[in-house]
């Protein structure tokens, strides 16, 4: 079975400081990895994905994530946080060989708060 | 262009009543998904539609839950005899007809509260 762990329910960071939201995964074979963001009273928005190729993936709003196969991690990062980045962030994984929709497994989410 | 829309945005109902939640996917998207997001939890897959194929209902938590998709577009999720544990945000997503549905576009969700 595949799974995603987001070990931090809450991350607080000062505006202008770098931020990291952690994600580790477990899946059979090669993973497809995703980050989604959910703003208050809004649906999830796609941020970025890792399918293959460079381990460092760049996405929307200046976010990036680094795929680390040996550590089975896909941490989300941003060099300089903005107050407007405050939101709920979800990491998701699926096995690359799977065609089933159910095989996309989401983490429990991390609430990021950027303090002015 | 227009994204995925869902209605109603909020629904309050009494225990035992039936509710219907609607999803309008992005035009041209052949795949449609329903997820449930409970407080403090991740997204729980409910059901998946792909074109004219039989839906994948493997995520539905009980036989009180059902969904249909008419004409390959609009979908309705129905919960019969609602229970308090059904209270959650119900999210709909759609995907374009490419490859293995790598990217999902989510609607704003319907917040369901069962009293």
Give an overview in words.
The complex is a heterodimer of chains A (116) and B (115). Chain A contains no helices and twelve strands. Chain A has strands spanning 3-5, 10-14, 19-21, 24-26, 31-38, 44-50, 56-58, 64-68, 73-78, 87-95, 105-106, 110-115. In chain A, the strands form three sheets. In chain A, strands 2, 5, 6, 10, 11 and 12 form a six-stranded mixed beta sheet that branches. A four-stranded antiparallel beta sheet of chain A has the order 3-9-8-7, with no helix packed on it. In chain A, strand 5 (31-38) and strand 6 form a beta hairpin. The model of chain A has no long low-confidence stretch (mean pLDDT 91). By secondary structure, chain B is mostly beta strands. Chain B has strands at 5-7, 10-13, 19-24, 31-37, 43-50, 65-69, 75-79, 88-95, 105-106, 110-114. In chain B, the strands form two sheets. In chain B, strands 2, 4, 5, 8, 9 and 10 form a six-stranded mixed beta sheet that branches. A four-stranded antiparallel beta sheet of chain B has the order 1-3-7-6, with no helix packed on it. The radius of gyration of chain B is 13 Å and the shape is globular. The mean pLDDT of chain B is 90. The chains are: A mainly beta (116), B mainly beta (115). Chain A binds chain B through residues 4, 9, 32, 34, 36, 41-46, 49, 51, 90, 92, 98-102, 104-109, and chain B through 3-4, 6, 31, 33, 35, 40-43, 45, 48, 50, 56, 58-59, 91, 93, 100-109.
Task: Describe the structure in brief.
The complex is a heterodimer of chains A (116) and B (115). Chain A has 116 residues and is mainly beta.
